[in-house]
Design goal:
261 residues, mainly alpha, membrane
């Protein structure tokens, strides 16, 4: 059994395009940090293939694709090298990069989940590994350049489309292994899942769709006895701080004192 979206030359070419685009995004981050060419290529490689490396290590599929598949590695290296030269043009292609990044997000989520299921993991484990595949490279990149990871920093839908894509992939895989659908139908549905992820991501950025934050509340609902105890403890701590001598105001040892010798 093989991964549906890696079974034809066309889908393999699409995957290389996704790797290349992720590599360019990583390389652009390194360029903005004013790193040298070798660092740009390394950041591009880890951005494009880091998620797959995490997945393969957790699955025990060694050596990971990120260091064993020559086509993927060379594509990631090429992305870094190209970005080192054409970074001004890449920096202007905002929507093109967002679209191809969304394609990579969906494709990596589907393929990562499918590979996990191929190794007989549970559905929940496959969803985690599919999500790691889609986002792991970006997380490692941001950690290396000392930035808050994109999955936390980006207010738009980023994790949610990847998780949904992974969940849908598990359902399709189960239907296929249960002989409810054929190979062609599975491949078609996987393509539809990738398109759904792309649409969710692009619409989130285009229309500023965000998940709600914490509920804004201004009243505390706790038992009165507990609140009185908290206030009493707070007052006691405040009195202790006032009673303690300020170390800054305390006189220091004078010359000739035993403490100064």
């Amino acid at each position: 059994m093989e991964i549906a979206l890696q079974s034809t030359p066309f889908f393999q070419a699409v995957e290389y395009l996704a790797i290349f685009s992720c590599g360019m995004a990583g390389g652009l981050t390194a360029v903005r940090k004013r790193y040298d060419v070798s660092s740009i290529i390394i950041i591009a490689w880890i951005t494009a293939l880091g998620g797959g490396i995490i997945r393969d290590v957790l699955l025990g599929a060694l050596p990971p694709v990120g260091i064993s598949d020559m086509g993927s590695v060379l594509t990631a290296f090429a992305a870094g090298a190209v970005t080192a030269v054409v970074h001004p043009e890449v920096d202007k292609l905002k929507w093109s990069m967002i679209t191809i990044d969304a394609l990579a997000l969906g494709l990596f989520a589907v393929n990562g989940t499918s590979k996990a299921l191929l190794y007989n993991t549970s559905g929940m484990t496959a969803v985690f590994l599919g999500t790691f595949t889609a986002m792991g490279g970006g997380v490692i990149r941001d950690m290396l350049v000392n930035e808050v990871p994109m999955v936390v920093r980006d207010p738009h839908l980023y994790v949610v489309p990847a998780v949904l894509g992974s969940i849908f992939t598990v359902w399709v895989w189960r239907a296929h292994t249960g002989r409810l659908i054929g190979d062609n139908t599975e491949m078609l549905l996987d393509v539809v899942i990738v398109l759904v992820v792309i649409v969710l991501r692009i619409c989130s950025v285009k229309f500023n769709i965000r998940l709600p934050g914490a509920v804004q509340r201004h009243r505390v609902h706790l038992p009165a006895t507990l609140l009185r105890g908290e206030r009493a403890q707070t007052d006691t701590d405040g009195q202790r701080r006032k009673a303690a001598p300020d170390s800054k105001d305390a006189p220091g040892p004078r010359r000739g004192d035993p403490a100064s010798s």
